[in-house]
Amino acid sequence: MKISKIGGMYNLKTFRSNDTNNPNQNKGKENSLVKSPLKDSFELSIGYVNDTHGQTNNMMRILSGIDGDIVLSAGDNDIGDEKNKGIHRATAKFLNIANVVATAVGNHEMDTTQEDLMDSFNTYKADALVVNMKKDDIDEQDEENVKKLGRARLEESLKPSKIVEVKGEKIGLIGASPIDMFDRLTHPNYHTDCHVNPLDETIEDIQDEVDNLKEQGVNKIVLLSHLGNKKDKQVAQTTDGIDIIIGGHTHELIEGIKDGENLLFSKSGEPVILTEAGRDGNFFGKLNLTFDKDGIITKAQNNLGETGLFHKNLVNQYIFENVLGAPEKVGYIQFAPPPPKSLTEENPHANFVCDVMRAETNSDIALWHNCGVRNFFHEGEINSSDIKDISPFLDFVVVAEVPEKTLVDLFKKAIKDTYSTSSRKPGLIAVSGLEYTVNENNGTLVDMKYIDKQGNIQNIDVENPSETKKYKVVTDEFLMSAGADYSILAKEEDYLKKYSYDKDIMVCNYIKRNNKPIIINQVGRIKYTDEK
Question: Is the pLDDT confidence value at 8 over 80?
């Protein structure tokens, strides 16, 4: 077995025969899990990934470890809009080399135009599955709008489900997209002709598709879900016929098999196993299962592999470099702390990038949204590919004059939204040239200070910020004018400058020009209080 971390096999026969807390169990039935003669059993291993987010270095490492009788993805394999075509091609290579046979459609798949999305899907060996997304007929749309927004017959590249044969057994696969899909897009106007059904209708869609598969003689069914962990649990407990949910979207890291966490029970009391392997390809999984003759799981073992423990295969590295170009050695990282575990923690890696943007553009303030930070600096030699993984989206660096009140309003909204969600999205904002304090108890901005290049500190009145005083602010286009989760700081026509490259290029240039080891320890810019 190639997975580095091996969990114990969870014997569901023992679990069910003990009749532990299972509110959905139909106690009037004979317990089918108690009877599973070896001759009537079927063993299946599933390699799985979710939310790899175009992290090409991690993809290459995953390819050295992932295996299974079948390999599946819960979506968000890709990242970025039509400017990120190299990442899209590399993602396709990853899915194909890993022999992924099906993937859910996540929100990040929809970052780009429908034409580009279809082009990507058409290069996949995998089928893109989605049962709960609907699309308007393109023939009934305005032709000019279709052309301008890059719309296409996307439904031709999507299926609600598929049946695959593994070791002589039929396995049914269904895909589901997130309910909030179209609230989270980089370019929402690309897909205003699409919608995802609300949760109650999505559950009906899934159940109908399960019933359809069962009518075709399938009694082992996997849901590839980008609904998120909480909704996955609802689906597991309000449907019948699903055995496994390969989950994504909320970036949970679920290890082993735990009753009530990822071992749940359907309406009729049959076990349902849930998985999710974090985010950004930092982990991947292997689920080992034993089914009885009726297609009911009797044993399960859920293993996670830590991607960083695997080396890149030289052949795969060569394939990826043909798509992305060979990375350039940039410099050396002398010290770098572990990355934060939450979007509410201060991120010194992102703060360092902000310092670079501020210095390189001679701006007063630099900002970067934590949810856009997809990796971190590692100690030792660093190349351009490593830095690109930290900022995989291609969002051009831009500079604009921003009123103090607009700046304060951005932080107030980001903090409020972050602390009002269990996932802590969109996250706190990394800064250079600012310090600010967050009340974690009520999710508010308490105070803010501007620190000029000479180190002088000026207090900003967050309760009565100036509408006339302006700061020269540098960030990326997403945060400046296009971010769905944030207030707009400046419109494109008001930019002072738009660079032809993103933060990764700016950081590479800065490190090469300084030509000395880099220390990542930029902290103390976000302070916390819980006073009521």
Answer: no
Across the range 273-288, mean pLDDT stands at 96
Which tokens go with 1? 């077995």
Task: Tell me whether residue 362 is exposed, middle or buried, using C-beta atoms within 10 angstroms of its C-beta: 0 to 12, 13 to 18, 19 or more.
Answer: exposed
Verify cis geometry, omega within 30 degrees of 0, for the bond prior to 403: no
Give the CA count within 13 Å in the CB-facing half-sphere of 127.
18
Closest CA to 270 of 237, 293, 246: 237
Angle of the 503-514 helix axis to the 348-361 helix axis, nearest 10 = 80
pLDDT at 221 over 80: yes
DSSP state of 453: T
Residue with tokens 């960030």: 475
Q: How far apart are CA 97 and CA 103, in angstroms?
A: 14
Q: How far apart are CA 85 and CA 117, in angstroms?
A: 10
| Cβ proximity of 74 and 247 under 8 Å | yes
Write down the residue that tokens 């169990």 correspond to: 25
Quick check: 471 pLDDT over 50?
Answer: yes
In 390-484, DSSP assigns E strands to 397-403, 429-432, 434-439, 444-451, 457-460, 470-476
Mapped onto helix, strand or coil, the DSSP state of residue 382 is strand
Tell me how far apart the alpha carbons of residues 79 and 372 are, in angstroms, rounded to a whole number.
11
